[in-house]
Design a protein that fits this description.
CATH superfamily: Metal-dependent hydrolases
Distance between the termini: 28 Å
Shape: globular
CATH topology: TIM Barrel
Strand content: 15-25%
Largest sheet: 11 strands, mixed
Number of strands: 11
Oligomer: single chain
Length: 245
């Protein structure tokens, strides 16, 4: 993080030494991404990233849905990315960005595995609320991505574990200040940050900084539920939670 800070503040922030990207897409699993697994890892590694959660789009319109084994095809990117990540000393965790038939909303799901994808690949006809009521779990985190981007309908806080208040995709206006205020108004307990990485040059736009390095989806969910982390935007720290007297 930036060093032009008072020593006491810098000492506090330096405890959060692990840099985590929570929202990122690879090609070809996400057709909107231009980053194949090898370049994806190379670019993130250059920013000092320690852990990345690969959250490729998982929806009925994905090109992988035409394969004999849609989930197997979808996961090819993840396993290649994980292989390159391990070689570079980075941890790569499986996540997914779901979309259901009811609208164009996107939802990030952490704490999943291949079995979960295989169970839910036939569930896109559910409403999000039905999906949440069926699959929410203490070991899983389900949240709305970029809820105030154009064309998105924000979901009430009773049907979310968290909200991606800070989506830093440079090509979209995600109205992060409105999203952050909404999280407070709706009493959504957890707020997250993500670059929504798709394109060259956008890597490192934002990250979550933690004291521990999660090694898998369960550890990532535990970290997010602990709320013991800080955000980093372009190298500048941000505390995601207010402290009230």
């Amino acid at each position: 993080m930036t060093t032009n800070l008072p020593a006491e503040i810098k000492a506090y922030l330096d405890q959060y030494k692990y840099k985590i990207e929570l929202h990122a897409h690879t090609s070809p699993a996400s057709g909107c991404s231009e980053l194949v697994p090898a370049e994806f890892i190379e670019r993130l590694k250059a920013t000092g990233c320690d852990t990345v959660c690969v959250t490729n789009h998982f929806f009925e319109g994905g090109t992988y849905m035409g394969a004999d084994d849609p989930v197997g095809k979808y996961l090819e990117d993840f396993y290649k990315t994980k292989e390159f990540g391990e070689a570079a000393g980075m941890t790569v965790i499986l996540g997914a960005e779901y979309r259901f038939h009811e609208n164009c909303n996107d939802y990030l799901v952490y704490g999943i595995d291949e079995a979960f994808l295989r169970e839910t690949v036939t569930q896109f006809g559910l409403t999000f609320r039905e999906f949440y009521e069926k699959y929410n779990s203490p070991d899983r985190l389900i949240l709305q991505a970029h809820p105030f981007r154009n064309g998105i309908e924000p979901i009430d806080g009773a049907h979310m574990d968290a909200i991606e208040a800070f989506n830093l995709h440079p090509g979209h206006n995600s109205r992060v200040t409105i999203a952050s205020r909404y999280a407070q108004q709706e009493n959504i307990p957890i707020v997250t940050i993500g670059t929504d990485l798709h394109h060259r040059g956008h890597e490192g736009t934002s990250s979550l900084r933690a004291k521990v390095k999660p090694q898998n989806g369960a550890e990532l969910v535990a970290l997010l539920r602990s709320k013991d982390y800080v955000f980093e935007l372009g190298g500048r720290p941000l505390l995601p939670y207010y402290i009230y007297d």
